[in-house]
Amino acid sequence: MMLNEIIKSLDQNFEYVEYQATDSQYIITVHSLRTEVACPYCQTYSSKVHSVYNREIQDLPIQDKQTWLHINTRKMFCVNPDCHHKTFAETFDFVARHGKKTKRLVEKILVTSAKLSSVSASILLKNNAVTVSKSSICTLVKKNASDCG
């Protein structure tokens, strides 16, 4: 398994750290190689780290096992004195700002649920190593309704 290639397909600025495997899941730990991060509010780049926290994001299954990314995410100080936000969290293009699932997993959920009820889609996805409840499917469909035409 080429975990580094999978990680780089999400973000070229990620570095694979380690993985753990159980009977039902893979946990892949990564961290960002970026030296500076743009404030999402004022676009000013900062290298001043406030703190680091672990973010858990579910990705597409690998070998019929749930896949979780553990990302060491930095909270940064905004260095722009005119910005109204003193701190901000590092963001990643492959996941929504406060998302718990990668965009490619969300797409799989939406495609699966397009012709099924949320209950049936939830059961089918669970059988395919994707953890998502029927209410989460409904929420995802509502959030992405504008993408449906």
Please provide a written account of the structure.
The protein has 149 residues and is α+β, with helices and mostly antiparallel strands. It folds into two domains: 1-97, no CATH class; 101-149. Helix content is 26%, strand content 34%. The protein is built from four helices and seven strands. It has helices at 3-10, 103-113, 118-127, 134-143; strands spanning 14-21, 25-32, 37-38, 45-46, 49-62, 65-77, 87-89. The strands form two sheets. Strands 1, 2, 5, 6 and 7 form a five-stranded mixed β-sheet that branches. The chain has a two-stranded antiparallel sheet with strand order 3-4. α3 packs across α4. 22% of the residues are buried.
Task: Summarize the structure in short.
With 149 residues, the chain is α+β, with helices and mostly antiparallel strands. It has helices spanning 3-10, 103-113, 118-127, 134-143, and strands spanning 14-21, 25-32, 37-38, 45-46, 49-62, 65-77, 87-89.
